[in-house]
Amino acid sequence: MLKILQSTCCYWLCALLALPSHADEVIIYADEDYPPIMYKDAQGQARGVMADAVRNFEKFSSQKLKLEPTSWRRAYEYAVKGKGGVIGLSKTKERLALFDYSDVIFEDNIYLAVRRGKEFEFKTLDDLKNKLIGMHLGASYGEQIDNAVKNGALKADLSTTDVIRIRKLLRGRLDAAVVSHGQIGLDAILKSDPELLANKHEFVILANPLVRDPLHLGFAKSMKMLPLIHEFNQSLKANKTPLTIKKE
Q1: For domain 21-106+213-238, which CATH number applies: 3.30.565.10, 3.40.5.10, 3.40.190.10, 3.40.50.620?
Q2: CA distances from 172 to 86, 105, 117, 186, 202 (A)
Q3: pLDDT tens for residues 6-65?
Q4: What are the residues whose beta carbons fall under 8 Å from the beta carbon of 80, sequence distance 6 or more?
Q5: 198-238 pLDDT, tens per residue?
Q6: Where are the domains of the chain?
Q7: Distances 241 to 28, 41, 244 between C-alpha atoms, Å
Q8: d(Cα 138, Cα 135) in Å, to the nearest integer?
Q9: Is there a contact between 214 and 91 (Cβ–Cβ < 8 Å)?
Q10: Please, are residues 211 and 125 in contact by the beta-carbon 8 Å criterion?
């Protein structure tokens, strides 16, 4: 019994020592252009469900985190290099070898937007054969879709921002474009660009989601951040108000 107690105490002491001190600044990178999940507002502040999860953690733990909105490609690159964590991270086999993951923060549904009058039935990936789909550069849409893109079964046009992607759709250069969280996500994109907002009635969201995408906080395994992740998971469980999309 004494050995068990000593072992338990030793574990928690090591965990506490491994946690960054309050003086240390832990950076969390986030996508600056993926509304309503993650985005940067006009003042340069991180907003969306992922930002809400970070702020809930800070209240729960008194541990300050520095949330840095940037391009998703850069956020992911910095996280792989161990410069900080990354929030809004999907799981893939490749990423599981690189990152320690939190519990699911939020499950996002990814839909397809099309031009009005150009709607088509979508139930399976076979329905997307010979269609060009606008997708977010550096994003994962699950292994089935990622593999379909890699092997050429699904044609993807990659863009760095949602606005670029939806503009391409408006001009007829895409058959469909991915949109986070359906109509709410589309509305957020349209409001951010005068041209798209003026043509808001030109877009339709297809009924069935392309994929359901559970999102996490992740740190490169080299950073040894499991104690912080454990505390972050506790904050998710302690939050009595479910994280939801705020329609602005």
Answers
A1: 3.40.190.10
A2: 34, 35, 12, 17, 11
A3: 444 444 445 444 444 444 789 999 999 888 899 988 888 889 999 999 999 999 998 899
A4: 98, 220
A5: 999 999 999 999 999 899 999 999 999 999 999 999 999 99
A6: 21-106+213-238, 109-212
A7: 22, 23, 9
A8: 9
A9: yes
A10: no
- Of how many residues is the chain composed? 248
Q: Is this prediction's pTM over 0.70?
A: yes
pLDDT computed for residue 239 by the predictor: 86
Whole-angstrom Cα distance, residue 110 to residue 135?
11
* The domains spanning 21-106+213-238 and 109-212 adopt the same CATH topology: yes
Q: Out of 3.10.520.10, 2.60.40.1120, 3.30.300.110, 3.40.190.10, select the CATH number for domain 109-212.
A: 3.40.190.10
Which residue, chain included where needed, has tokens 């690159």? 77
**DSSP letters for 14-26:** HHHHHSPPTTS-E
Tokens of 74: 């850069």
Paired tokens of 170: 């408006």
